[in-house]
UniProtKB/TrEMBL annotation:
Superkingdom of origin organism: Bacteria
Residue ranges constituting the Histidine kinase domain according to the UniProt record: 256-473
Keyword ATP-binding: yes
Transmembrane segments: 12-32, 176-199
Name of protein: histidine kinase
Gene Ontology cellular-component terms listed: plasma membrane
Broad class of the protein's primary localization: membrane
Keywords carried by this UniProt record: ATP-binding, Kinase, Membrane, Nucleotide-binding, Phosphoprotein, Transferase, Transmembrane, Transmembrane helix, Two-component regulatory system
Top enzyme category: transferase
Pfam family, one: HATPase_c
Catalytic activity: ATP + protein L-histidine = ADP + protein N-phospho-L-histidine
GO BP terms, alphabetized: cellular response to phosphate starvation
Length: 475
């Protein structure tokens, strides 16, 4: 339980936004501050080096012109060297061309020989500057030329302390650190406020949804704080609307089923009661009533069979028995079976095939779908009318059109004809023997094949159903 709570806490959108805001608000500032601090320190060192080097060259020139290298008994130069060392809080060393130290302001190496790398480089005519950051010193090594400015007659070394620079850098770093702490605290506060504001609309959505669950399918939500939350609200409301429609459809379906199943039973009951209430019923009347009862039983059986077919259609499409079928032969066989029904009304039944079509179908179910369309076209046609079935295909789909010149479907009824138990003209539909489930079954079969079905009709002019189904079935 504790692990689950921790996991949920780390998956919190508020926490993620809080961390992101803190990181975005602090990391760049810290990085920039470090870069500025390092750049500032480097610039200060370079500035110090340039300033000291200018002063140092002046002293070196004075030493060169005064002949101090050959005669180090010059008190003025000695004073200049000591003053230079004091100003730089460091040390001055003068080495003659014999590598002997003739002056050391620390009075440590005077009289000793100095053959360090810096001295050797200076005698080859190369000046040297070295910043010893760890030791807090800048070392200057400068060759001293003779009167002709061609021969190096000595070397002057200066070690300048950088403690003041380091102290300045420490003070600057301390101030920057203080500013970073203040900035971090402000960013944390701001991030907490902003993250709370960001998740507030989602909390409103959650509260609205929780409230809505207390009254299922009864209340829409509106959270229009942001585009995203408005999209969520709209999506929920759209789903709610669809669920309401489904719920209404379910209730209507249950009501229709009850009514449709009850009607034949009521008729049977009335007929049976009529027979039972009479004595010495003539055989002819008895046979007539029993025939009517038999028809009602057949009608009841047909309704139940269609309902079972719909239930099977509502199951997963993986239950389809899909094989490759010659659609031309299938349509020809279907129309051959239905021609006797058409001949009873003297309706001309025509098949028009534009090309051979092979498709992956469930033969039994697809035959049922086409049979329903053609039977309806015959039943709701006029005497001496016609029904034309056409077949065509492209590289991806095949198309079956079932057109007639019958009574047509009113425009206001066209959007309902695929609903279960819906009848345009209930009296005429029952007279024709329909259950009101045929088109619902047809649409379900077409959809199970990933197809589509469309209707075009004009009252008293005729109706056309167009079925489009992929040539290759993809489960």
């Amino acid at each position: 339980m504790k692990t689950e709570k921790k996991t949920r806490r780390f998956k919190s959108l508020r926490l993620i936004w809080f961390i992101m805001l803190v990181l975005v608000g602090t990391v760049p500032v810290i990085v920039i501050n470090r870069i500025v601090l390092a750049t500032s320190a480097a610039n200060e060192v370079q500035s110090r080096i340039a300033r000291i080097q200018n002063q140092w060259l002046i002293v070196v020139n004075q030493v060169s012109k005064s002949g101090y290298i050959e005669n180090p008994k010059n008190e003025v130069i000695d004073s200049e060297l000591v003053q230079m060392a004091n100003l730089q809080d460091g040390r001055v060393i003068v080495v003659n061309k014999s590598f002997k130290t003739i002056k050391d302001t620390y009075e440590i190496d005077t009289g000793k020989y100095n053959i360090s790398e810096a001295v050797l480089q200076c005698f080859s005519g190369e000046a040297k500057v070295n910043y010893r950051q760890g030791d807090q010193y800048i070392d200057f090594a400068q060759p001293v030329y003779g009167a002709d400015n061609t021969e190096v007659i000595g070397v002057m070394l200066l070690s300048s302390s950088t403690r003041s620079l380091d102290e300045l850098a420490d003070k600057l770093e301390s101030r920057i650190l203080l500013l970073e702490i203040v900035e971090f605290v402000l960013v944390v506060i701001l991030a907490a406020v902003l993250s709370s504001l960001m998740v507030k609309p989602f909390k409103k959505i959650t509260d609205s949804l929780n409230h809505a669950t207390e009254n299922p399918l009864g209340e829409e939500i509106k959270v229009n704080d942001f585009v995203e939350t408005k999209s969520v609200s709209d999506a929920y409301n759209k789903t709610l609307k669809r669920l309401r429609q489904l719920d209404d459809s379910r209730q209507q379906f249950v009501s229709n089923v009850s009514h449709e199943l009850k009607t034949p039973i009521t008729s049977i009951r009335v007929l049976a009661d009529s027979l039972m209430s009479q004595e010495d019923v003539p055989v002819e009347l008895y046979r007539e009533f029993m025939g009517d009862i038999s028809e009602e039983i057949d009608r009841e059986s047909q309704i139940i069979e269609d309902l079972l077919t719909l239930v099977r259609m509502d199951k997963s499409s993986t239950e389809l028995n899909v094989t490759q079928i010659n659609v031309n032969d299938l349509l020809e066989a279907t129309l051959k079976r239905l021609r006797p029904i058409a001949q009873q009304k003297n309706v001309e039944l025509v098949l028009e095939s534009f090309r051979p079509v092979l498709a992956e179908l469930d033969k039994t179910k697809f035959t049922l779908a086409i049979s329903n369309l053609v039977e309806n076209a015959i039943k709701y046609n006029n005497q001496d009318g016609w029904v034309k079935v056409s077949l065509n295909a492209d590289h991806k789909f095949f198309y079956v059109k079932v057109a007639d010149n019958g009574i047509g479907i009113p425009e206001e009824a066209q959007e309902h004809v695929f609903e279960r138990f819906y009848r345009v003209d209930k009296a005429r539909s029952r007279a024709a023997g329909g259950t009101g489930l045929g088109l619902a079954i047809t649409r379900s079969i077409v959809y199970s094949h990933h197809g589509a079905i469309k209707l075009y009709s004009r009252e008293n002019e005729g109706t056309t159903f167009t079925v489009r189904i992929p040539l290759i079935y993809i489960a």
